[in-house]
C-alpha cells in the first residue's frame, strides 16, 4: 500500500537489519541495485556510455563507490569524483572505496573534472543521502549547479543531494539541490520525494528494499495515495434510484464580485454525482447559472442548512453575514467542508475553531499553505518547511480531515494517519481549481462517502483529471478550472465502471 517512512524510521530499520547481516551487506546491495538502475538508463551499449559518478564523504558516497565499480565492470566509461570523509570512514565505506579503486573507474578530483565540457550519458548522484542537515555549500554547491546545467539523465541515490528526505524542502533558505530525473531510494520510500520541492527534484522514484526482512518494518502511518484506499466506495448506480438517492450539496459563498467561485464549486458537485446542488449567496443571489441551469441559486439567509452537505467558503468574503453563515454551518448537523474565506474566518476566530473541533458531524478542511499558516499562526515558509507536521497538527487540533493543497497534497486525519497524493501537475496552479476540488469532495460526502475516503478520492480524481488533460495537450499552461469539471466526471465514471465489474 505504498508506505512512506521518516528518516528516523529508516535508520531504525537499517540498524535492525544490519545487526543480523554480514558487515557491509546493505551497502553492497545498495551499490548493486544502483548499478542495475543506472544500466537501465543508458541508451545503448555500455561500452560506449560515459557515466559520471559523484561519491560524497558519507555512507551515501559508499553506495556510489560500489555502484561505480559495478558499472565499470560492464565496460562503461566511468569517471568518479570522490570526496573523502573529514574523519575516519566506516569500515563498509572503506571497503567500497577499495573495490572502486581496483575497478576500471577513473578517479578525478573535483577541480580536475571537466563537468560541463564532457558529454555524459548519465550522472549518478551519491553526494549526500538522508542525513543531510546543512545547505550544500562551497564545492558541493558549485558541483550541484554544474550538474543541473547538464542535459542528461541524473540518477540520485536514496534522495537528491540537497533535498530534505522528510519534508521535501531544499535544505537551507537559499539552498540548492541536484535535479534528478530518477531517484532510487533505499530500504523504504521517503515522504520528501513526493511533496513540496520533492516532485521537482526527485523525478521518477523507485524503491530498493535491499532484501531486508519484512519483520524489520513497523506499520507506517504515512502512505502514498492509492485507489485501493477508496475503491470500495466506487459503486455502480442502481436503476431503482432517484435524485434523492445521491444527496444534496449546498455551496455557500459568492460575495459581491466573487460569484464565480461558488459557481465553479457547485458545477463540480453536480458533475461529480450529487443529486441536487444549491448555490447559496450571502447577499443578493444570482437568478440562475446560465451555463449550468440545473443549479438552484438561493439566498443563504433563509435556507435550512440541515438539508444538505455544506461546502462553505468559496468567494464568501469576511463580512458579518459571512461570519454568521459560518457559525450557522458549524452549528448544524450536516457534513461540512470549509474552504477559502471560511478558513480565514476560522483563523481569526478561536471560538469558531473550538466549535468546529467539537461538532460530531464530518468536517473536511482544504487550506492552501497561506490559509494553513493563518490557522497555525505562523508563516507560509514554516508550513512548507514541514507540510506533514502542519497538516497533522491542524487535523488533530480541529478534529477534521485536513487537505493541505500544493505539490504533493497532504491529507491528514486527527489520529495522525496521513497520505501524500501523487496525481496532479502545474496546470492546477490557476484560480478556481481549489473551488472545483471543494465541490468534488462535497459531492462525494453527499453521496455517503466517509470523510477520509472522500478526501482521498477527491484529491486523487482532481489531480488525475489535470494529468489526463495535459496528456491530451490541454495545458499545463492556460488550463482553466472549469475545464477540469468534465474531465473529473469522465475519470469518476471510468473508475466506477472498472471497480464495479
Overview of the molecule:
It is a single chain. The protein has 16 helices and 17 strands. The protein is an alpha/beta fold. It has two domains: 214 residues, Rossmann fold; 273 residues, UDP-N-acetylmuramoyl-L-alanine:D-glutamate ligase (3-Layer(aba) Sandwich), CATH 3.40.1190.20. The strands form two sheets. It has a ten-stranded mixed β-sheet with strand order 8-17-16-15-14-13-12-9-10-11, with helices on both faces. The protein has a seven-stranded parallel β-sheet with strand order 3-2-1-4-5-6-7, covered by helices on one side. Strand 2, helix 4 and strand 3 form a beta-alpha-beta unit. The chain starts with 6 loop residues before the first helix and ends with a helix.
Task: Using brief descriptors, characterize the structure shown.
ten-stranded mixed beta sheet, alpha/beta, elongated, 16 helices, 15% strand, Rossmann fold, UDP-N-acetylmuramoyl-L-alanine:D-glutamate ligase, 501 residues, seven-stranded parallel beta sheet
Amino acid at each position: 500500500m505504498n508506505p512512506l517512512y521518516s528518516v528516523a524510521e529508516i535508520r531504525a530499520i537499517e540498524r535492525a537489519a544490519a545487526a543480523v547481516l554480514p558487515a557491509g551487506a546493505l551497502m553492497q546491495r545498495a551499490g548493486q541495485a544502483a548499478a542495475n538502475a543506472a544500466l537501465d538508463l543508458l541508451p545503448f551499449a555500455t561500452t560506449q556510455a560515459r557515466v559520471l559518478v559523484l561519491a560524497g564523504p558519507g555512507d551515501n558516497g559508499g553506495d556510489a563507490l560500489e555502484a561505480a565499480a559495478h558499472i565499470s565492470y560492464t565496460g562503461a566509461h566511468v569517471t568518479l569524483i570522490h570526496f573523502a570523509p573529514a574523519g575516519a570512514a566506516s569500515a563498509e565505506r572503506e571497503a567500497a572505496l577499495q573495490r572502486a579503486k581496483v575497478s576500471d573507474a577513473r578517479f578525478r578530483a573535483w577541480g580536475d573534472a571537466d563537468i560541463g565540457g564532457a558529454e555524459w550519458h548519465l550522472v549518478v548522484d551519491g553526494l549526500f543521502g538522508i542525513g543531510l542537515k546543512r545547505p550544500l555549500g562551497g564545492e558541493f554547491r558549485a558541483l550541484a549547479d554544474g550538474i543541473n546545467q547538464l542535459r542528461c539523465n541524473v540518477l540520485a541515490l536514496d534522495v537528491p543531494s540537497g533535498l530534505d528526505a522528510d519534508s521535501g524542502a531544499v535544505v537551507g533558505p537559499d539552498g540548492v539541490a541536484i535535479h534528478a530525473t530518477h531517484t532510487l531510494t533505499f530500504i523504504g520510500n521517503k515522504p520528501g520525494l513526493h511533496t513540496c520541492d520533492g516532485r521537482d527534484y526527485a523525478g521518477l522514484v523507485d524503491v530498493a528494499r535491499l532484501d531486508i526482512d519484512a519483520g524489520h518494518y513497523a506499520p507506517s502511518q504515512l502512505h502514498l495515495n492509492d485507489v485501493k484506499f477508496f475503491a470500495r466506495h466506487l459503486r455502480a448506480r442502481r436503476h431503482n434510484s432517484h435524485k434523492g438517492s445521491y444527496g444534496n450539496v449546498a455551496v455557500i459563498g459568492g460575495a459581491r464580485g466573487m460569484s464565480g467561485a461558488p459557481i465553479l464549486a457547485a458545477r463540480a458537485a453536480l458533475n461529480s454525482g450529487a443529486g441536487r446542488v444549491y448555490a447559496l449567496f450571502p447577499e443578493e443571489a444570482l437568478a440562475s447559472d446560465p451555463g449550468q441551469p440545473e443549479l438552484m441559486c438561493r439566498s443563504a439567509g433563509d435556507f435550512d442548512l440541515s438539508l444538505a452537505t455544506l461546502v462553505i467558503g468559496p468567494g464568501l468574503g469576511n463580512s458579518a453575514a459571512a461570519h454568521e453563515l459560518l457559525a450557522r454551518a458549524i452549528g448544524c448537523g450536516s457534513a461540512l467542508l470549509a474552504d477559502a474565506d471560511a478558513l480565514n474566518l476560522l483563523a481569526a476566530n478561536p471560538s469558531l475553531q473550538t466549535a468546529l473541533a467539537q461538532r460530531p458531524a464530518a468536517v473536511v478542511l482544504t487550506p492552501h499553505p497561506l490559509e494553513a499558516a493563518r490557522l497555525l499562526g505562523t508563516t507560509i515558509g514554516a508550513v512548507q518547511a514541514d507540510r506533514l507536521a502542519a497538516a497533522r497538527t491542524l487535523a488533530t487540533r480541529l478534529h477534521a480531515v485536513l487537505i493541505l493543497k500544493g505539490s504533493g497534497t497532504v491529507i491528514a486525519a486527527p489520529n495522525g494517519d496521513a497520505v501524500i497524493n501523487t496525481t496532479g501537475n502545474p496546470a492546477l496552479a490557476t484560480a478556481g481549481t481549489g473551488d472545483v476540488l471543494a465541490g468534488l469532495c462535497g459531492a462525494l460526502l453527499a453521496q455517503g462517502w466517509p470523510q477520509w475516503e472522500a478526501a482521498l478520492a477527491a484529491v486523487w480524481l482532481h489531480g488525475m483529471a489535470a494529468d489526463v488533460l495535459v496528456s491530451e495537450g490541454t495545458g499545463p499552461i492556460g488550463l482553466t478550472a472549469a475545464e477540469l469539471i468534465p474531465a473529473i466526471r469522465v475519470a469518476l465514471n471510468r473508475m466506477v465502471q472498472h471497480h464495479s465489474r
